[in-house]
Amino acid sequence: MRNEKGQFEKGHNVPKRWREIIGKITRGKKHSEERKEILRQAMLSRYDKFGFINSPEARKKNSDSKLGTKNPMYGQCGFLNPNYKGGITPITKRIRHCFKYKAWQNQCFKRDNYNCVFCKVKLGNGISYNIDHIIPFSYILKTLKTWTDEFNLDLYESALKFEPFWDINNGRTLCVPCHQRTETYRRSALNFKYEY
What we know:
By secondary structure, this protein is mainly alpha-helical. The chain contains 9 helices and 2 strands, in the order αααααβαααβα. It has helices spanning 16-26, 33-50, 56-64, 91-96, 99-111, 137-151, 155-161, 163-166, 176-180; strands at residues 129-133, 171-175. The longest helix is centred in the N-terminal third of the chain and has 18 residues, at 33-50. 9% of the residues are buried.
């Protein structure tokens, strides 16, 4: 585990027993002010040696060199970006993070006056809350997918125009414990059958 200089090789794990012993020795102890100054000077010399600390002028120059069209990644979004993987963001994530979805959530919160509709507790002050879909999100999405496949339409664009997603009467404000007790919470939503 050690090289010819006596140093530990990369990837060496300190045994658990040693860690416990070192922890007992060092627990609760603090460095003296002299020791802190020695460590600070060593860190600064290391930074100066390897160039990690730059002067304010050097930082400004470095920042300006990467602004706007000078930045090598300027304008490279979507399929132009070298990290682009073909638009693999799941449709559920795209819908749930779009502006229209956030606006729908806020409308539901305001309508319910930020109260859980089951237990009537006022939300906030450390109480987490959710918007529950009465007709599950997955069921609405499944309905939309069959419709878009039939007419060869873009799923995301169709979702933005699909009224059942944005129907305020399909949402209700719930605290997390009440939401977990609903019959359409997470995986149980897959068994949902809509009755007209």
